Amino acid sequence: MIDVKKIRENFIIYQTQPKLCYLDSAASSLKVKTVVDQVNKYYHTLGVNVHRGAYELAYEATKQYEDARITVKNFINAESEDNIIFTRGTTSSLNLIAKGFEHMLNPGDEIITSELEHHSSVLPWMVVAKSTGAKLVYVPLTKQGKITVENFKSVLTSKTKVVALTHVSNAMGYMTPIKEIASIAHKHQAVVILDAAQSVPHTKVDVQELGVDFLAFSGHKMFGPSGVGVLYGKTSLLNQLEPYEFGGEMADQVFKDHFTYKDAPLRFEAGTPVISGAIGLAEAMRYIESIGMDNIEEHTKKLHQYTLSKMKDIDGITIYNTEAEMPIINFNVIGVHPHDIATTLDQYQINVRAGHHCAQLVTKFLDVNSTLRVSFHVYNSIEDCDIFIKGLKESIQFFNGF
Ligand SMILES: Cc1ncc(COP(=O)(O)O)c(C=O)c1O
Q1: Does 64 contact ligand 1 (Cβ within 6 A)?
Q2: What is the distance between the alpha carbons of residues 393 and 316, in angstroms, rounded to a whole number?
Q3: Which of 12, 51, 304, 401 is most buried, with most CB under 10 Å away?
Q4: How far are the Cα atoms of 51, 212, 213, 265, 387 from residue 250, in angstroms, in the given order?
Q5: Taking the model in full, what pTM does it have?
Q6: What are phi and psi of 14, to 5 degrees?
Q7: Which pLDDT tens digit goes with each residue over 133-156?
Q8: How many CB atoms lie under 10 A from the CB of residue 348?
Q9: Which residues are catalytic?
C-alpha cells in the first residue's frame, strides 16, 4: 500500500505548497527530489560533455550517461542499450521516426493511425503522407471512442506499411490492445510504432512482450526532467531510418562531399545530448522501481475509481470516458466553459487541465471544443479526490446555481 504522506516527503513542492491538489499528471508529473539532486550533482561535479574528452571528468560523465541508457533498457526490457536513443521527448522521438521513414514510403502506401492520437503521434505522419503520396487511414473508433482489434483489422490492407498508435490516450485514458494489433500488423509486414507517453509512467511496459517496433515516451511525465525522452527501436529498423539531424558524434567518416553514419543509437544523437536529462530520467526510473510500478498502478486505480464514483452522483456533468483503463477522467460541466471551471478550481489550488489536450481529433469525435481532464499519480491521496469533488460541486453551484 502507498503511504502518500511518506511519498510527499520526496516531492519538495508539497513543502512550499502544502495545500496543492495537483490533478494534472497526464500533462506533466511533479518532480521527485532524488531526480533533481542527481541532475544538480551532474552539473556540480561533472558538467562536461560525453563521448569526446580524453580526461577523467569526461569518462565519468560518459559512464553516467551510458549507464542511464542501460537503466532505460532494463526499465522497458529492450533487447540492448543500443536500442535506446535519448531525445528531447515523445514529440521529438515520434518526429524522428516519421521523418526517418519518409524515404521508405511510396505513393499509395497506407499509414494506419487513429483519432485518439495526441498531435505528436499523428501530425508527423500527416506531413510525411503529404510529401510521399502515402495515405493516412484512421481506425474506426467504437461508440465510446476505443480502438479494438476488430476495428483495426477492418482497415488493415496489403498496402499498410506503418501502424502508428497511442498506447494510452492522453485525453480518454483508453488502452489500445497493442500486443494483438502488433502481431496482426507484422503478418502484413507493417511496422508498429507506439506512443507510450501515457503508459510508461503508469504501468509496466515490456517492449519485447508487446512486440512493437518503435516506442516513444517522455521523462517529465514520470517524475523525471523535462527536455529528455526516449525512442526505442528494433536494431534492423533503426539502422534503416534516415537521421534528420546531422552534426557531431553521429557521423562515422566524413569526406569533402559525403559522410557515413554511425550505427544507432549515436546515429540519432547529433550534437551534445541531454546528459543531465538522461541521468535524471534513470534516477526517476529507480525511484519508480523502489515503490513498485504495480503498487503505483493499484494506488492510482483506486483514486480514479473513487473519484469517478463520486462524480457520477453530481448533476450537470458529462463524463466522456467512464470506461477508461488508466487514471484519467475527461468531462464537462454542462453549460460552463471548461476554462471557467479550471480557473475556479485553481482558487482552491486544485489543478486540472482544460482544453483540447493536444488531441483535437478526440474533442471533434466528442463533438465539443474542449473538456476538463483530471489525472492522478502516486503523490495523490483520497483527500485530494475529496477536495476536488467539493471544489467541483462549489464551482457548479457558482455557475449553474444547483
Ligand atoms: C499520449 C501523448 N503523446 C505524446 C505527448 C507529447 O509528449 P511531449 O510533449 O513530452 O513530447 C503527450 C504529452 O502530453 C501525450 O500525452
Answers
A1: no
A2: 10
A3: 304
A4: 11, 25, 22, 9, 51
A5: 0.97
A6: -70, -15
A7: 999 999 999 999 999 999 999 999
A8: 16
A9: 358
- Whether residue 89 has its Cβ less than 6 Å from ligand 1: yes
Q: Is the CB of 25 under 6 A from ligand 1?
A: no
Tens-digit pLDDT profile for residues 214-239: 999 999 999 999 999 999 999 999 99
Q: What is the largest CA-CA distance in the chain?
A: 74
Cell of 76: 522497458
Atom of ligand 1 at shortest range from CA of 169: 1
Residue 176: which of 201, 208, 142 has the closest Cα? 142
Q: Which atom of ligand 1 is nearest to the CA of 166?
A: 1
155, 112 contact by CB (below 8 A):
yes
CA atoms within 13 A on the CB side of 372: 26
pLDDT in tens, 349-397: 999 999 999 999 999 999 999 999 999 999 999 999 999 999 999 999 9
DSSP-assigned beta bridge partners for residue 40: none
β-partners of residue 373 are 330, 353
Ligand 1 mean position, distance from CA 59 (Å)? 33
Q: How far apart are CA 357 and CA 26, in angstroms?
A: 10
Taking the centre of ligand 1 as the mean of its atom positions, its distance from the CA of residue 91, in whole angstroms, is 6
Taken in order of first residue, the domains within the chain and their CATH numbers are: 4-28+292-400 (3.90.1150.10), 35-289 (3.40.640.10)
Q: Which amino acid is at 397?
A: Q
